[in-house]
Amino acid sequence: MEMIKNLTNVRGIKCWGAHTGIKSLRRDLAMIYSDVPASAAGVFTQNKVTAAPVDLTKKHIADGKAQAIVINAGNANAATGEQGRLGAEAMAEAMAEELKIDRELVLVSSTGLIGEPFPTEDIVKGIRENVSKLTTKSNAGSFTANAILTTDTYAKEGFVEFGVDGYEVNMGGIAKGSGMIHPNMATMLAFIVTDVAIEPKLLQKTVEEAADKSFNMITVDGDTSTNDMVLVMANGKAHNDMLKTKKDPGYSDFKKNLEEMMIHLAKQIVSDGEGASKFIEYEVVNASKVDEARTLIREISDSTLVKAAMFGRDPNWGRIIGAAGNAGIPFDYQKVDLYLGSDEKIVKVIEQGVPQEFDRNMMKKLLRESHLHIKLDLHQGKSAAKGWGTDLTTDYVMFNSVYTT
């Protein structure tokens, strides 16, 4: 049987996922290592309260270089003061010492409960005991993906092979996230490695643009976390000519595959939304500007009333239009078409601002499906965007009412 490819199939990448005891049953320490320094880029939470690892990683990635990433699960190391800051630094220091690399080449991430004292000694001990286990064996990729989970019900992974100007390039990614998911990133982490050769500044710009199409277009509950980050390392071991500008041969192929990887991981996060029973794709077409299309999607997808209607299989399209009108985006309602349904069938419920007759029983059957589709056609431009979200269920409320107990 052919093994599923993952992080370890990227040239020069080793990884491992270990159990240190921070979480009682699951692996809780993930490590990713490139055998050469790599171009690195990242995007981070927009929350004004940032966790210690976010602050440290922003400093370490400022020069566009990295060689290792270490992640702990079970404790967010957020709102932990000086003790947390020292804990994040200790993680980077231990990883650097064991790998014999500069500490500034180590990026640090944490996920878990906010405000709990950070178990620095246990995590540092786990790092020192497990660095020697870093490997290219395929099971290590799976272990690493599982070691970053918190309330997730499954590991989120992706891998793709593609060409850049005639050179074979590999890209692997992992992510976590289930609750506190909201546009501009929320309790979600994603780590992507590739062997393409690309300059750091161009990589950073590409990651930012790809994040706007993917992780910044998902929502579960409207809460943006303290710990979000997406990190990408590109170590150049594909030996393609260095990508320096967007006009270079092969750049468009790299960007396309990075966007697809990020969208793939982002959609997995939404599919695993806490308590969710529906995966909803939102689409706005023929808008004046891309940013306006994205803003409309974010407003609609984060509407409590819209999400509750989808949970109840209620074809109450008025909630969708009402949410769109709250987005602060100018559009002519008399030109709007609105479609509602599932992946299998979508029905026009408004045409040019006029409500259309439709079979409500048939619509309720469509809304029983696990994958739903809402499409808004503004008829006022050529721009479009997509986003993804969930319904709002009683299970979500129950889970989050007792999460820390």
UniProtKB/TrEMBL annotation:
<comment type="similarity">
    <text>Belongs to the ArgJ family.</text>
</comment>
<keyword id="KW-0012">Acyltransferase</keyword>
<dbReference type="GO" id="GO:0006592">
    <property type="term" value="P:ornithine biosynthetic process"/>
</dbReference>
<feature type="binding site">
    <location>
        <position position="274"/>
    </location>
    <ligand>
        <name>substrate</name>
    </ligand>
</feature>
<keyword id="KW-0068">Autocatalytic cleavage</keyword>
<feature type="active site" description="Nucleophile">
    <location>
        <position position="187"/>
    </location>
</feature>
<keyword id="KW-0028">Amino-acid biosynthesis</keyword>
<dbReference type="GO" id="GO:0005737">
    <property type="term" value="C:cytoplasm"/>
</dbReference>
<comment type="pathway">
    <text>Amino-acid biosynthesis; L-arginine biosynthesis; L-ornithine and N-acetyl-L-glutamate from L-glutamate and N(2)-acetyl-L-ornithine (cyclic): step 1/1.</text>
</comment>
<feature type="site" description="Involved in the stabilization of negative charge on the oxyanion by the formation of the oxyanion hole">
    <location>
        <position position="111"/>
    </location>
</feature>
<feature type="binding site">
    <location>
        <position position="176"/>
    </location>
    <ligand>
        <name>substrate</name>
    </ligand>
</feature>
<dbReference type="InterPro" id="IPR016117">
    <property type="entry name" value="ArgJ-like_dom_sf"/>
</dbReference>
<dbReference type="Pfam" id="PF01960">
    <property type="entry name" value="ArgJ"/>
</dbReference>
<dbReference type="GO" id="GO:0006526">
    <property type="term" value="P:L-arginine biosynthetic process"/>
</dbReference>
<feature type="binding site">
    <location>
        <position position="187"/>
    </location>
    <ligand>
        <name>substrate</name>
    </ligand>
</feature>
<comment type="subunit">
    <text>Heterotetramer of two alpha and two beta chains.</text>
</comment>
<protein>
    <recommendedName>
        <fullName>Arginine biosynthesis bifunctional protein ArgJ</fullName>
        <ecNumber>2.3.1.35</ecNumber>
        <ecNumber>2.3.1.1</ecNumber>
    </recommendedName>
</protein>
<keyword id="KW-0808">Transferase</keyword>
<comment type="pathway">
    <text>Amino-acid biosynthesis; L-arginine biosynthesis; N(2)-acetyl-L-ornithine from L-glutamate: step 1/4.</text>
</comment>
<dbReference type="GO" id="GO:0004042">
    <property type="term" value="F:L-glutamate N-acetyltransferase activity"/>
</dbReference>
<keyword id="KW-0511">Multifunctional enzyme</keyword>
<feature type="site" description="Involved in the stabilization of negative charge on the oxyanion by the formation of the oxyanion hole">
    <location>
        <position position="112"/>
    </location>
</feature>
<feature type="binding site">
    <location>
        <position position="150"/>
    </location>
    <ligand>
        <name>substrate</name>
    </ligand>
</feature>
<feature type="site" description="Cleavage; by autolysis">
    <location>
        <begin position="186"/>
        <end position="187"/>
    </location>
</feature>
<keyword id="KW-0963">Cytoplasm</keyword>
<feature type="binding site">
    <location>
        <position position="400"/>
    </location>
    <ligand>
        <name>substrate</name>
    </ligand>
</feature>
<dbReference type="InterPro" id="IPR002813">
    <property type="entry name" value="Arg_biosynth_ArgJ"/>
</dbReference>
<feature type="binding site">
    <location>
        <position position="405"/>
    </location>
    <ligand>
        <name>substrate</name>
    </ligand>
</feature>
<keyword id="KW-0055">Arginine biosynthesis</keyword>
<comment type="function">
    <text>Catalyzes two activities which are involved in the cyclic version of arginine biosynthesis: the synthesis of N-acetylglutamate from glutamate and acetyl-CoA as the acetyl donor, and of ornithine by transacetylation between N(2)-acetylornithine and glutamate.</text>
</comment>
<dbReference type="InterPro" id="IPR042195">
    <property type="entry name" value="ArgJ_beta_C"/>
</dbReference>
<dbReference type="GO" id="GO:0004358">
    <property type="term" value="F:L-glutamate N-acetyltransferase activity, acting on acetyl-L-ornithine as donor"/>
</dbReference>
